[in-house]
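Deliverable D4.2, example record:
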Amino acid sequence: MPEQKTLTDKLFLVAILIKGLDGAVQLIGGIVLIFVQPETLTRLAHAVVTRDLVGPPAGPLAGHFEEAIQHFANGNRTFVIAYLVLHGVIKLGLVIALIRKVLPMYPVAAAALGLFVLFEILRAVQTRSIVLPLLAALDVAIIVLVIKEYLELRRQRD
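Output generated by the structure prediction step:
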């Protein structure tokens, strides 16, 4: 008879699948940015802002969007690409290990997510981002689910 999945089990699976999707998008985005010229991104950002896709062109969201593109185009490109690719690879590796229930990787995943939370909070303070604290809170919830799953798997194996 198959084992019944609890709500926590289902939440854990959804959470790590979301992290896997996030990691895949970051990895693909980082790879794409290697081949896209900064001028192309600047033109794209201008097109997005002028068509009110991120609010009014003079609004704060549009301003942050254009400022981020300018930072990227003016020298943060290598950092952004490395960050996205590294983040994506780490997340995908951890997600694969957690789906396969590789027990030693659970503490590694919790620690890695903890570092992501720390980074998100530091960047939120520096940039006054509203989104980063929300992502950090989501990561904290995922850490709790990873730890719960880890403890349950250890209990089952003992």
